[in-house]
What does this fold into?
Amino acid sequence: MQIEKIKGNQTEQLFKAVLELKDMEECYRFFDDLCTISEIQSLAQRFEVAHLLRLKKTYESIKKETGASTATISRVRRAYDYGNGTYDEMLGRLYPDENPVPIIKE
It folds into this structure.
């Protein structure tokens, strides 16, 4: 989707650092130093929106449950449907027992 726009030495360094995180506590500390609370909450909210989209929840129920705007839900939906497939891949790893109805791409 936008991978070519973000590739570069600084991004590479950041992603390598994330891959070096050893546990949840270290992850919390790293992101606490790296991001504002609002930025972390925004990322977490987007990931939860993707999770609820994967479970076929309606925009209205997602908005109510997460507080996300319809614009955010639409943005996540676009990435979920037409992106690189990593939302579904990561959610599948986190929740292997969930059996969401697969999205049929046109």
